[in-house]
Every structure is written in structure tokens, then in C-alpha cells.
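PROTEIN FOLDING TASK:
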Amino acid sequence: MGCCTSSPHSRRKYRDPADLDEVIESPLREFGNYRNGETNLVPNDIDGLPSTHIYKHLASNPDTLLYEAEIDQGSAFRCCKPYIICFLVPVVWVAALARGSVAFLKGCTCDEVICWLRKEYSTRTFFRVYPNRIEYNVPNLRIPFGFCGCGSWNADYIKTNPFDRGAFGFRRVKAGVFSYLCGIWPVYGETLARQRCQCNGSLWPRLGDCGGWWCDEWMCDVLCCSYRYTGLADADETAFAAGIALQAYFEGRKISKEDMDKCLEYYREHISEKTDPEGRKRDVCCEPYCIPICSCSTCYEYFTHPQRNIPYDEEDPRRTQELVEVYDTHKDLRDKQVQTYKDFTGPVRKSTVCKALGCRRVFGRRGFIFCTEGCTDCCSKKSKDPAPPFRYGDIDDINDASVVLRKLLGEPPMNVTYHRWEWDEESNQFDLVPPAEGNESESLTNRKVKSFKDLRTQSQSTG
């Protein structure tokens, strides 16, 4: 990726769409040296991907809006957190003086508690996915005009994160961040993490080219290995949509709004845990011996999501049709989000300590004590070989963005090749699936293991 070298243009050798104007004697873009994360599989030669700002080298129209995430209406109360008491400490005052009063006060969002609808915070806040970037806006109070009551009250603060500047995958943050109440409960909205490097897995060999490490683990969610987007109503779906757009960029595949809608429909019907909590349950460690905790459903419903009424009478000329629509939209979103939290987030994800932390096992990938899987492959793995498979299969392993794109939108461009490890029922082990003859990759939709439960049971039997 361009951000991984001091001279990005000297490494960018691919031209989309998929170099089809050139004679291809062998596949150019190969995938498999890095283990897949929850959403994406990173190409081996990521430095060669085209610049997201040279549009003629991109397969898709960069102005196409693929997905806009739903904003959690409780994000207006994100200033009401227990750690706000830290502002009473003199050390924080010194930091405010060093940073500057205007810059420091920009982080103050207390006016949103009252003015979330009246001052257009709700309609100006967005998170959008494009074929080459993420765009999001978190408007803030203008200093000092907002306090004085003159001029426009808030200023847009739009940021753009292009896919060639530290985007290797997306995932929902389970716990341990300041954007959650006490680091556990997402009463202000869920948080999405963007992985900043291609490392994924355990600390096994090839540390020099970053072939291992644990960058999809909980520690990276709370430290500096990921960039976080807050205030989302459904971070899992948003992560999936962003991962689809990112993988299409990796492959040089053309993608449209209709393609994204098709992928999202498939996600809701076959992958999402929210639509089928029992059939697509993500296991957590220590079950069924878990310590129950409060789900904070009451706090979510009555504190961070209160009813908001139009402050003007029927005859008041300030009660415009647009104002009524804004309040009606807020009510619909508020009722929907409260019901989702009471039916799913609270009882399924935040009812016990283990569920709140989100660790799927004690040791191993997505575990409580980092990732230890792959340590036994030190002697068998050779340089340039595809990454060895994880010992314990998860449902996300067989439903990452590359698999979904291939299943719904067809094979990737002809110069794309995937090397995968898949479970073979006959040999009772993981086998490396080579690419098909020619330039097309072996389709993962034809795997012998038809369900995640079979894969999990069989993989654990060999562990």
C-alpha cells in the first residue's frame, strides 16, 4: 500500500480495471500470504495497488455512494460519561492551555444533548462508504460563535480516509474503548475499527514482513493499531459494507450501488447474528459458566435515547414541514434502535461478562490472551507460502468479503488469484486449494463443508 513506502508512486504497478488492456501471461494480484481478518483478505503485493486519487486507474466511479450507515441517536449524549470527572483534575487544565482553548473546546459536545435536532446535528452527521474511501462527518460547536448565539451554531468536520492509506479490514469494537459507557456498554452507539496494518494472527515466523501478529485482537481495538469511528447504530453491518468496498478495490473489481445492496441483503439473511441469534451465534469463552451483568437497556432507552418533542405549537410559523419530518425521522430511528438494543444487544451481547468482552476463546485467535494459533507452524511454513489456516474455524472465516463478492457478483478479474486453506472431509485435515487452471481462482462457494457448525466441529477435532 502506498502508505507503507516512502515513494508510493514507485511501487504502484497495477492499472484498473484489472489491467485487461495488457497481455496477462500469469496472475498479477495474488492473495493468501496474509491471514484473512473478519472482513477482508489482503493482497500479497499491496504496495502495487493503484492510487485512490488517480481516478482513471480505478475500476469503479469514485463518486458512487455505496452505503450510508445509520447513526445511533444516543451519540448526542456521548459527553455524559463517567470519565468526564477527569476534567476536574488540574493536569487536564494544563493540557487544555497547551493545546489551545478553541481546539480543546471543540471536543465539547454537551450542547448536542439539548440541540441534537434543533441545531441540525442529527441530519449533518454521517458515515458513508465509496468505492475508494470512507467519508464521515461529526459536526462540532463553533467557537466562540456557538456560545454567543450568533452565526451558524455548528461547523461540519468532514474527514476522508482513502483505502490506500491504512485500510486493511473493518470490525466492530466489542469493549475497552472510551466511546462505550465504562468501556463496555454501547449506549452512545457502537464503534467501528479500521485495521491499520495487514498483520493478522499469532506471533509466528516472518516477523520481518509482518506475516503474523495479532492485529484482529482486543488489544488492538483499544490501542493504536486501529482507527475508530463512533456513534453507529449497527457497526457489524457497517463493517461488512466497508469490507465489501475495500475488497473490491483490492481486486480491481467494478462495484455499483446495486451490487452493494445485493451483498447487504445476503449478509442480513445468511451472516448477520442479529437476524438469527441462535443459528448464527458467535461463541464466547467460558460459556455456559458466565458471570451475568447489567445490560444497561434502561439507560439506553431513557437516558441516551429520550423522547424529543417539537418545541413549537401547531400555529407557530417556525413549525415547518421540514422540522416535522426531522422529528418524525428521529422518533422512528429512536424506537427502532431501542427495540434492537432490548431484543438483541442487551440480552445477546451484553448480558454476561464474557459476552460483553466478546472473546471467543481464552487462548487463540480472538481470545482473551492474544492469539497463539500458528506457533506450531514455525518449522513447516516456508517463505512465500500461503498463511497456514487457523486451527479453530469461525463463521466469519467462510464469509469474508472475497467469498461474498465471488458468490454474488461472480469471479474476480482475470489477473486475481486466491490461495486458500479449506477443510477436506476425506483427508480429515486442512488442504491448500490451488487456483484453477488459467487465470481464474478456485471458487470458494463449491467448498465441501456446507455449514459453519461442520467446519467448527471438524477443525476442533484435529486441534
